[in-house]
Amino acid sequence: MRHPVVVEFASTAYARIKPVAVTAVELRGDFWGRRFDINRKETLPTQWDHLESTNRLNNFRRVFGEYDGPYEGLFFNDSDLYKWLEAASWLIARGPDAELEKRIDEGITLIERAQEEDGYIDTYFTVDRPNEKWTNLRDLHEMYVGGHLIQAAVAHHRATGNGRLLNVATRFADMLCKRFGPESDGKVEAVDGHEEIEMALIELARETGHSRYLELARFFIKARGHGLLKGGRFGDAYFQDDVPFDRMESLAGHAVRALYMCSGVTDLYLETGEEGLLPRLETLWDRLTASRMYITGGVGSRYDGESIGVDYELPNAQAYTETCAAIASMMWCHRMLAATGDARYVDLFEWTLYNGMLPGWSLDGREYYYVNPLENDGTHRRRPWYYCSCCPPNVARTIASLPGYVYGTDAESLYVHLYFDSDARIEVAGKTVGITQRTQYPWEGTVDFTIDTDGDLALKLRIPGWANGQAALSSREARDGTVKAAGVSLSVNGGSVDATPDSNGYVTIHRTWKTGDTVRLQLPMDVRVWQSHPKVPDNRGRIAFSRGPVLYCVEQADMQGVDLDELFVDPAQISAHWEPSLLDGVVALKGTAQRRAIDSAWTGELYRPFGQQREPAAGEASPLQLVAIPYFAWHNRESGPMKVWMNYREA
Amino acid sequence: MRHPVVVEFASTAYARIKPVAVTAVELRGDFWGRRFDINRKETLPTQWDHLESTNRLNNFRRVFGEYDGPYEGLFFNDSDLYKWLEAASWLIARGPDAELEKRIDEGITLIERAQEEDGYIDTYFTVDRPNEKWTNLRDLHEMYVGGHLIQAAVAHHRATGNGRLLNVATRFADMLCKRFGPESDGKVEAVDGHEEIEMALIELARETGHSRYLELARFFIKARGHGLLKGGRFGDAYFQDDVPFDRMESLAGHAVRALYMCSGVTDLYLETGEEGLLPRLETLWDRLTASRMYITGGVGSRYDGESIGVDYELPNAQAYTETCAAIASMMWCHRMLAATGDARYVDLFEWTLYNGMLPGWSLDGREYYYVNPLENDGTHRRRPWYYCSCCPPNVARTIASLPGYVYGTDAESLYVHLYFDSDARIEVAGKTVGITQRTQYPWEGTVDFTIDTDGDLALKLRIPGWANGQAALSSREARDGTVKAAGVSLSVNGGSVDATPDSNGYVTIHRTWKTGDTVRLQLPMDVRVWQSHPKVPDNRGRIAFSRGPVLYCVEQADMQGVDLDELFVDPAQISAHWEPSLLDGVVALKGTAQRRAIDSAWTGELYRPFGQQREPAAGEASPLQLVAIPYFAWHNRESGPMKVWMNYREA
């Protein structure tokens, strides 16, 4: 039976929560239902056109002589086709789509024909650089590209049962197994400069049942951190090759690499239960969320090396926060949830989905951000494609697989991780449970469930951290002991029940259900006002707003004629308003603010004697209305400055 | 007659102030006299050893078969020897030094033997890549390296009258002249990816009298900005190749490149008086100083591309502010002073000398910073040498040539640009003027001059911008009309005279001097407290201190047990104290401050609900003594955090 789950944890004793197939859930409604359709109708077709027009597909064709131009683009461009195929696979898992299947078939055929006899596949090398294969693992990404091939193949096999692409992937992986491993086995001790192969191999082991892939992934994870890569200009830390994982104190270096590494290590833990891995993962997660993560959930404070900064280094305008890093963080969260059963990882998954990844994707589904600043002068625009275009197909595969993240199961329970307007039929404890969610979430906090099953079942509903009066991002330590449910209410068939979550953040309704039973969850949708740790220099004297899981920003389009540097908002006077015609329909925040003019005489100098400029007296400040929009929707109108963190002035 | 000036403006009508030979001035005293000696006794010898031990010299020897190892290091490593030779040349200009002359001779011999028949010289190419010469001007720096060869050769010729190295340089330059230029002349239209050759060629034209070098420099300047380099991953702006100079609105891209470009363009103006160049240079200088320059005088806000940021992008901890960029800015200032006669350019030269370049050089003369942050956690340490070691020999040549920057002349005047304890004999209007300065500057503001000449002479003394109640860095517009001399006093032979400077920032004493006449200048050495333009996010709520031309910082070594993020200084209570045993003798600032503790419960989270944390009440703040040290002297003791911009709290 096909069971197309995003990541397959079902076979291991170390996964506390099992995944649900992407096909088990149908997204509906104006928020996710619409976006899911946009991904299928706009994102995937236009991306295919880019793959074609930028010669990414021709790079394959030239391997077998059907294209005679030069290799074009970056050396890891093959991976864009692989991610696209993964996205498309999750979609055709849902049912026939002739157009999409035709393209998938075309893509797989290209790949099959471009694979060499011994299993090697990388179009950058095969034609022009056959003698340079495996000569520069640090920089040239052969295993990173191969990892995406494997992930696509696993997705395609899970989605269709068809083994064509999986066959390509196993031939490639078998070649890796022959070549790389312990020197004592006569193999080459090496690691790839960009993590990705680790989690891919573990998924391949799950899909095929062959433990050699898991063993190789384990080898790569253990071999890293010993300077094998000889770091070069960015240094070993860029590649997470400066310290072995079991002694790593904090995540640093290239953000996507670091987070893909953590995803792979979590997969290794889930398969082996190896002692020490999980506490180390938790430590790294704590440090990351407590000192190196943007309030968007984004990771990566530096353009230099696309890297994570030191503690509290979180500049807004120069934030890097690559869309792929947000996705990588979500991938890691999904695995940590399985390993721990703790909803804090869903909190971050959800927060990053809305505020870290979604900003990278335009409302029309055709343009993307690679870099996601929290403040901008209006010059940073989404683009339809990039020379280094890792992010767009990463968005596509994430949205296409999103139904697989909504629910989870264990031996006796159905977990509701995410509140999405949706219909689902899920296998729990050997029987199929029908469950629908009707909700305007993330705009409204009411979620109405209908249970379409009879019998005993523990329904576990996640109480989001933000609903708990907690920070969206917080370490385990900061969260422990503060779990409560202020403002949360819960009823079953109209009768109120206790909404207090357990220490994992879920409230359990364990009962014998009858078809048609209803559950209503009400989450408080107050506007939350955030301040930042005083050690973050850029955020001093500033606040940010959220409501539900959605972070807000102020954008020039709503604040005509005001320099946003001169805007001081009043944190006490913010209210939420549904605006159906704004940005395809959003809840906007409105409030009071003041324009407090920067001394207009302060021009021509950066530095002045202290005390020469006074802050404007109250009489000089002019009141105005504040309108804030969801951060994910910024820059879908005319160009203009934007800020997440706003100056405040207490009224 | 030898006339070893740093840059030769004497032959052009467009230089308002002429230079003085480096040999005309003898630096004395504990500040510059001592540093000048350290440069000779510590810096140059240890740098020579690094040139040898890192195979930079062997890269030359292998060209003619006296070394058989591989080429080692970066492709532009030849330039480190050239800069070292320039430094050494300025020193031997002062008199015999057998050890230094032996090394200079050895260096020149290496270079002579490594030059090819046709004048080409670049050891990265000659042996291993003969077919790749001139194939990648964007990235491989052949003309940048050649420019440093030319500068060294000009310095050596000026210093010694010996033409050996100049002969190498002219052969190289003649080859450039044959190869590069307008297509209509049958030449290759190209520019180098790293500016430097432009000012070098103009100096070569001055030294040899051959206008073809000036013409080629002019060609390179005009050819830039039209995308000839095809920018690549950093984009055209990195190379200043996105906009032609005559339409450039602001400096951007790689900081050293941009400032070397401006130096070359100023040289072009000085030689040709070409219309439009000077106003454009002034516009760029205004924009740079008014919105893109650190209070240290440093330039370069981004590690990414070692580049200048957008307006007001001036992060402290992540400041790049390469030592070479400070030096490049000083080189540009020196040329702008010649072009305009305006002391504002000396103001910035001096400020950058003390606060932009000097921090890059350890007190013992043996270690260097490449990057100069304004705030650090204690991990950023000077190093004896770098893989990319452009900065250390750049410091060496600047210090060695420093005597040449102290004075200037015009037809009837002697300009005193810089206040350095020194003895000098200077040619003005056909006669030799002896002049001594006795001063403890920069620690004290009193400068006593003795004039050792008879006859008519206008003595022009610069009144520093900082003494004028002006910002150290300011645009021409911000400065115009505000020139005054509050706190400055001036006397001749004990009798007070008017100290009001002219609109160029100089006060003139025009009289018939008698040998033994004395002049006393007294500059106000109050502690200045600076605030930053409110659009600089990192500096809000912070102040910085200076005294005279010296910027201060607070360093953990003086503030044991206090988290510098918790330090709030009182701007009204700062006083200056000479500390002879601190950091080889400095004036330290002392004052009152408070420790205002960051909520010790604020751990484990970056973001908290607004209003949950209160600022500490007055009773919670603990008073302590502030000790601030000159920023240039930081990190010459144990490792520890440092800040230039400190939190303040009005008393």
Written description of the protein model:
Two copies of one chain form a homodimer. Chain A is of the alpha+beta class. Chain A is built from 16 helices and 25 strands. In chain A, the strands form four sheets. Chain A has a seven-stranded antiparallel beta sheet with strand order 2-8-9-10-15-12-13. In chain A, helix 7 (142-160) packs antiparallel against helix 8 (164-179), helix 11 packs parallel to helix 13 (323-340) and helix 13 packs antiparallel against helix 14. The longest helix of chain A has 25 residues, at 29-53. Chain A starts with 17 loop residues before the first strand and ends with a strand. The model of chain A has no long low-confidence stretch (mean pLDDT 94). Chains A and B meet through helix 12, strand 16 and strand 22 of A and helix 12, strand 16 and strand 22 of B. Strand 22 (607-609) of chain A pairs antiparallel with strand 16 (527-532) of chain B.
Keywords:
homodimer; 651 residues; alpha+beta; 7-stranded antiparallel β-sheet; 6-stranded mixed beta barrel; 25 strands
